Amino acid sequence: MLDLGRTFLQSVERSPNALALVDGEFRVTYAQWHGLILQAAHGLRELGLAHGDRLLVVLQNRWEMATLHWACQFAGIVIVPLNWRAKPDELDYCVSDAGVKAIVYEPVSAEAVMQSPAAQKVPRIALDDAPGRTASIDVLLAVQTGHAPESIETTPTHASADDYSLILYTSGTTGKAKGVPRRHRHERAAALAHVAQNLYRHGERTLGVMPLYHTMGVRSLLSMALVDGLFVCVRRWNARLALDSIAQYKLSCLYLVPTLYHDLLADRAFGDIDTSSVTKLGFAGAPMSDGLLKRLSAAFEPELFVNHYGSSEVYTVSIDQHATLKPGSAGRAGINTRLRVVKLDAQSPDDVAAVREEGQIIADLLGDEAFEGYWDRPDANAKSLRNGWYFTGDTGFFDEDGDLYVSGRVDDMIISGGENISPVDIESVLSLHPCVDEVAVAGVKDERWGQRVVAFVKRRDYVDGDTLDAWCRASDLVNFKRPRDYVFVDDIPKSPVGKILRRKLQAGEYLRDERGPAASVDALHQHIEITKE
């Protein structure tokens, strides 16, 4: 199999003059970008980084971040991308855990770098004159950017398909984050599957907004190179900027978490901006409510609407290319994957759950996209890797057609009165109410029931708990799953990649929405006045 450096060379050789990367006013073709990547790879080696060394990069989705990602693939260096919002102790842990040899960062992440004792022991390359640096990014990248090299370098890259490409750190909800090392062949197989499963054509154009420290962002970056496509950087999420980018660059495909799709539709400019170039929608990272599925389908009328279910460890677990036909379905195993649902307390991959029985989802580690184990974490391997299968920690079930439904995390399962209750089922029902903007369901401690089902609702228009309870009673939701309480909140807490943080809701870390019916009427009047203007 080709390594990723040679994979990028394919695009340079096929389409040297095609627009490859955009970041504001910065725009380069594949040939021009190749020149910058080679210079960055040379700069890393000159800095003392050798084959197999780790480089920590704490940057937003800017052109330098994308360039360094590819430079590491050419140089045989392992990139360790980290959330630019990381706190000092999180960054310090990753520097030590991965044994990084240098750090690249920017002003927004400078404080964490400066307060990390481990970071002070390695070279620190800064962008935009960030404080605490030992060198400037000019060491790695040309000051004059955007100039094509005179010729394409034909020297083989310094990596093979079996070398490590990157280490992704999972967001640990309990304990320390776990490093997920992935080889070039894992990453290339995942990118090829992404192209195939999303029916990408030559020259697709996508929004580079999912962070490049997250598997979804990396997949968007690599898949565009596979089809000689365009990657439009979005440094920090802004719905209006995203809409403007869609219109300006005629973007053809979006791959986002549900939260960002919600924000696009909620932006007042959505109806006035031409988004007709977008023909393919894909989502991952969290379940999408039935209500949002319907709204997106009506707004974009996509030719393809893909629900992708996976993880950092196994990029694709399942795929559903017809997300609106069976709302909630995650489809069937991806091109490179085998999957099963085993009983919740299963210790063996052979303890398979029955149809419609909720269990834990597991994936075959022989799949081309699957990792081989966590970075220096035998404890995590012992918990998650059993008899050649990866136990995801996600819950779900197969229906009678053989389609997978992902219902949540094992840790999120609500156990009330001895019944296992999935939050996702309840959220799907409530999301269809026209007054509900967003909803999250969690189990709150209860002396009698063990846990009480509570729905936390962000309203679009005024609605009360009695009305929502009647809505649930009128649905096919079984009685014991009905929320016993409704809490109306200003916002639903989420992680940087849009996953609902139920633990914050359970801990009371939210702001209540105390508005009464009059607030909804006032908001309607304001909307009418704005429309008139």
TrEMBL record:
SUPFAM superfamilies (UniProt xref): Acetyl-CoA synthetase-like
Any one Gene Ontology BP term: fatty acid metabolic process
- The AMP-dependent synthetase/ligase domain, residue ranges: 10-375
Query: What terms describe the molecular function in GO for this protein?
Result: medium-chain fatty acid-CoA ligase activity
* Keywords noted in UniProt: Ligase
Identify its protein family: Belongs to the ATP-dependent AMP-binding enzyme family.
Cite the PANTHER family for this sequence: ACYL-COA SYNTHETASE, MEDIUM-CHAIN ACYL-COA LIGASE ACSF2, MITOCHONDRIAL
Name of the protein: AMP-dependent synthetase and ligase
Organism, as annotated: Paraburkholderia hospita
